[in-house]
Each structure stands twice: as structure tokens, then as C-alpha cells.
Amino acid sequence: MSAVASDVAFAHRLRVAVHADDPLRRAALCKVVAEAGHMVVGLQDEADIVLADGSRPPDEARSVVGLGIVDDRLRGALPREADARQIDAAIRAVAAGLIVRTPVRENGFGAMRESEGHALLTPRELEVLAALAEGMTNKAIARRLDISLHTVKFHVESLFRKLGARTRTEAVAKAAERRRSEIIML
Amino acid sequence: MSFSSDALSQLSDAISARAEAAKNTVVAVRLGEGRHLTGMVWQSGVVVVSEQSLPRGDEFELVAPGGSTLAAKLAGRDASTNIAILKTADVIAAPALAAADAHMGTLALAIGADGEGGVSARLGAVNLVGGEWHSRRGGLIDRRIVLDIGLAHREEGGPVFDATGGCLGMSTFGPRGQVIVIPHATLTRVVPQLVKDGHVARGWLGVALQAVAVPDALRESADQTGGMMVMSVVENGPAAQAGIVAGDIILSVDGISAHRFRKIARYFGGDSIGRKADVRVIRGGAIITVQTTIAERRAA
């Protein structure tokens, strides 16, 4: 990155507090925020924007970008499955004093999807995914699961393919989203 | 020259009269900052709203027909059928809502609250009618009714009428902005349960499940490619009492494949409570059968 470009990026670096009930989802969102060049700060710290997933933090006076939250008072309202680019754009727009909405509600009251339509993850792939979410390297994953590095790579590639992800962060975020829509309480 | 007696102006007058007559069927649910949702007056003191659009909270302010403000309390919500109930202490005159079946291609009139005690109207056609379906949250919706109608967010939750003045149900948004109807039959079934208990009775094992692929080695003996992995077990729930643990992969319940969500959702209806059920699971590389007793789901 050139010196000028990095200056520009620095000028637009925002302090973002992340609120999510699901720890896996929170980890994924923190990564998305950090990789977009922003600084992740605690909910108690001074922040330009609060990124909230699922529920709005009570009595939050700062500007909130919400994911999958029904609340007309939100400055930024994105669907749960918003991608990294949309989240970054919403954070910057709301920090600049704009209101962000998606044109139609993607997520209206809809029919149950049967799981046969797409490739299911295996129990082993779920274990690898949990390790990815903790930011573990392939080597560390191999040690934890007591399998070869080659096998870990095989599982990671299979995860990318099944989830349609290109990076580890994206795989974790997509899996968390999928888990949210696929987990059923019985 | 006057056209007052031609078919088009008669149609127009009839629609306008119907919309006017529907003004005692809706209330506005205030959301703050001048925004509102529509609620449908189901019976005196009982208002039905779209669950997905109702913010969390126990107390709401309504604008009744005519413009007076009423306090309302949340009496129950069921995300599985997208129905929430608000109760008012003050009496709201209940309109006479006659149920009607939807027919493809017929006219539909959707009524919303204007926020000041009046109504707004939307006219369109019934775009599609189908059989019963299950929502993502497992609720049974008696018919699939899609409207060819534009609806503002503030109008969601109002009644939809056919040309005879019969009520098809409550308007709501489906995926991608599609306007659908929660049928009158579903409201008739669910509202009394919500009014009585605050939730809808469903069978319950006390597990959180995620669809997984059955490991290759067991695919043949399991005779299925997918199952539901137990992600967590509710303490002292029916599954816990039967010895089911996180990591087990449930293959079937009483012979119904666990990944057939719709069939499973139907099997765990209110009538399943108290039933003994055989659960086939993969545990430690072997397939075993565990007997459980289905309990009633605890209020969320």
C-alpha cells in the first residue's frame, strides 16, 4: 500500500464497538470490522459506531448499525446476512451522518428450507470450523484434533467449497449465518 | 356528461365504501418518531400484529379508530406463525370479520392504519394460492396466499378482504418484499392459544440441532445421508433425561428422518406432548435407539 493510500485509510479509521449475543458471530464480526481497517473497541469504550447483531444494546445512545434487528430508530439497518463490504459501507455511512437501509426486506416471513438442497458439513468439518473461529492455524488445528496437517488442509478446502467462502474469516461468518438459520430447537 | 353509473365508477365507489367500512378493523401501533405498524382488531380488546415487525417490549401505545390513544400490553407472541397479540384495558369495538377463502386471480383489498385513527387502502389481486406450509421457525400456516399488492411497512399487519367483504387474513411481508397473507384459519387456530397461554403449545425434547452430513463410514447402516447433530441439551429436559448428549447425531424420531424438518415440525405439534418417542442416534460410531418422552416446550 502506498503512503498516500495508507494515510487515507487511516483518516477513515473508526472506533467500532461490537455487540452480539452469539460469541462465534461476535468473533466473526470483529474480524470483519478489523479487516475493513477500523478499530474494534469495547462496548464501554468511546466508540463512533456500535455494530449490533440480533439485538440492540439497551439504552445505547450512540449510532447503531444493526444486523437483523427490527427497530426503526436504528441509524443503520442491514439484513443478518449482510456481507463484509456492506457492513463496512454502512459503518462509514452512518459515521458520516447518513441513514442506511436495504431496499427491500430480504428476510421476511418465509418457508422452512429443507437441508437437502446444499452440501451439509460433516461433524469433523464443524470441529475444524470451531477452531478456525478461534483464529487457530492449520498446524494448531492438526495438533488439537490429532490429525495430519494434510487432512486439516483437506477439511478447510472442503469447508470453503461447501460454504462458498474464499477466506477463513468469510467461512466463519458464513457458517455462523448458516448455523443461525439452520439450528432448530426441538 | 356524467359517468357515475358506468361500471368503472361503480367499482371505484364500491372499493372506497369498503375501505371506509373497514376503518374499525385496524389500529396503529406506535413505534416512535412518527412511525407506526398496523394492528388488526380481532375481538374486543384483542389486537393481532405481525410478530416479525413488532419490537421487543411489553407495553405499546395504540391509536384506535377515530384517533384516541390507548395503552396496550403484549399478551403473547409466536414467531413460528408470525402472530403477536396485544391486549388493551379499554374496550375497542370489535368488527365483524367473516372468514373467506382466497382464490387465485380475485381482487384483494388490504387495509392499513394511517396513524391518526383512519385507514389507508391497497387494491390488488390474489397472485397465488397454495396449500399449507411450514415457516422457518416451524409454524404451520394453513394456506399459501401471495398478493400482487404494494404495501408500506406501516400497513403491515392489517386485514385483507376479498370482493365479498370476507377476510382472507392478515397482511405481512414474505422474503424479498413479497406481500403474503397469514390466513384467517391460522389466526383462528393460534390467537386463542396466545390469548390463553401467551405462547403456542408444542412438543419438545430440549435439544438444539444442526443439520450435518452422516460420516461416510456410517452412511450405509444409517440408510440416510443427513442427520441432526445435537449442539446443546437443555438441563433436565426430556432428551437429557433419556441420556442424549451433545455430539449425538439424531437420525430419526419414531421413524421420521430428523432432517425432514417439515415432517418433524408437524410431528411435534401440541398433540405430541406426553407421547413416547424412539430416537435413533449415532453415538461413538454406532447407531443406537433411545426412548424419550416428549414434553411441552417451555415458554421462551
Give an overview in words.
The complex is a heterodimer of chains A (186) and B (300). Chain A is α/β, with parallel strands linked by helices. Chain A folds into 2 domains: 8-95, 3-Layer(aba) Sandwich (Rossmann fold), CATH 3.40.50.2300; 115-182, Winged helix-like DNA-binding domain superfamily/Winged helix DNA-binding domain (Arc Repressor Mutant, subunit A). Chain A has helices at 3-11, 23-35, 84-95, 123-133, 138-145, 149-163, 168-182; strands spanning 15-20, 39-41, 49-53, 64-67, 76-78, 184-185. In chain A, strand 1 (15-20), helix 2 and strand 2 (39-41) form a beta-alpha-beta unit. The longest helix of chain A has 15 residues, at 149-163. Chain A starts with a helix and ends with a strand. Mean pLDDT of chain A is 84; it is low at 1-10. Chain B is α+β, with helices and mostly antiparallel strands. In chain B, the strands form 5 sheets. Chain B has a 6-stranded antiparallel barrel. In chain B, a hairpin with a 4-residue loop joins strand 5 (69-78) and strand 6. Chain B starts with 6 loop residues before the first helix and ends with a strand. The interface between A and B is large, with 32 and 52 residues. Strand 6 (184-185) of chain A pairs antiparallel with strand 16 (207-213) of chain B.
Structural shape of chain B: elongated
Binned, the helix content of chain B reads: 10-25%
Cα Rg of chain A: 18 Å
Could you name the CATH topology of the largest domain in chain A?
Answer: Rossmann fold
How many extended strands of chain A?
6
